[in-house]
From TrEMBL:
Species of provenance: Arenibacter echinorum
InterPro entries linked: B-phosphoglucomutase_hydrolase, Beta-PGM, Beta-PGM-like, HAD-like_sf, HAD-SF_hydro_IA, HAD_sf, PGP-like_dom2
GO terms for MF: beta-phosphoglucomutase activity; magnesium ion binding
PANTHER family: 6-PHOSPHOGLUCONATE PHOSPHATASE (PTHR46193), HEXITOL PHOSPHATASE B (PTHR46193:SF18)
Signal peptide coordinates: none
Catalytic reaction annotation: beta-D-glucose 1-phosphate = beta-D-glucose 6-phosphate
Enzyme active site: 9, 11
Binding site for substrate: 9-11, 25, 76, 114-118, 145
Protein name: Beta-phosphoglucomutase
Cofactor: Mg(2+)
């Protein structure tokens, strides 16, 4: 398929931080007097912090002033940061390293394309910084996934045309963003959820060298 640029989402692809985001949002919801379920949390995947809070308040049917809204955003992030404080390499998802090392061995450039403003500290905690030639995160983009902006910036910085890039994503909005960017989308998760992806793997343990070689050839 002749691919020469590789872009990874972070949350849910490299590390399972979705559970920590969920706990922090649930705490806020409970404080505000309502429940927030795991199913509802699916809607938050790939979505910016601000948009998540808007959805949360819609679920709880709560109106907030600008000031309250900003305060809750800070509070959620502080709770999230304390949940990930102790995070280390053991939280890298299975066989992520195998794929990163395969790509490095073949001198392929690698980028991170994440909606999270916490992406850099997380990569540092799990000691993966050295694998990434380019990092584009929530501090660099104006338009959230499914807008292709985050991936187009990553491709540009890698110096690879979008059509030659591959995107690994666990979120529906992220797959759409990759498709909108004209890139090859690979879903990491459930096929029925990520049906718009070109290929879907439950996780990286299911992606063998044969498939990885096909991407390069
Ligand atoms: C995405 C997550 O990667 O980052 C979302 O899938 C999250 O759930 C978003 O809301 C923003 O993250 P952060 O760390 O900037 O609050
Ligand atoms: Mg994700």
């Amino acid at each position: 398929m002749n691919k020469t640029g590789f872009i990874f989402d972070l949350d849910g692809v490299i590390v399972d931080t979705a559970k920590y985001h969920y706990l922090a949002w649930r705490k806020l919801a409970n404080e505000l007097g309502f429940e927030f379920t795991q199913e509802q949390n699916e809607l938050f995947k790939g979505v910016s912090r601000k948009r998540c809070l808007e959805i949360l308040l819609e679920i709880g049917n709560i109106k907030a002033s600008q000031e309250q809204f900003s305060r809750w955003l800070v509070e959620k992030n502080e709770d999230y940061l304390s949940l990930i404080e102790e995070m280390d390499e053991s939280e890298i998802l299975p066989d992520v390293l195998k794929v990163l090392q395969f790509l490095k061995k073949h001198n392929m450039p690698i980028a991170l394309g994440s909606a999270s403003k916490n992406a850099r500290p997380i990569l540092e905690k799990v000691k993966l910084m050295d694998y990434f030639d380019v990092i584009v995160d929530g501090t660099h983009v104006a338009k959230a996934k499914p807008d292709p902006e985050v991936f187009l910036i990553a491709a540009k910085q890698l110096g690879v045309p979008p059509k030659d890039c591959v995107v690994f994503e666990d979120a529906v909005a992220g797959i759409e963003a990759a498709n909108n960017a004209g890139m090859l989308s690979i879903g990491i998760g459930e096929e029925k959820v990520l049906s718009e992806a070109k290929f879907v793997f439950t996780n990286f343990t299911k992606m063998d060298d044969k498939f990885l070689n096909r991407l390069l050839e």
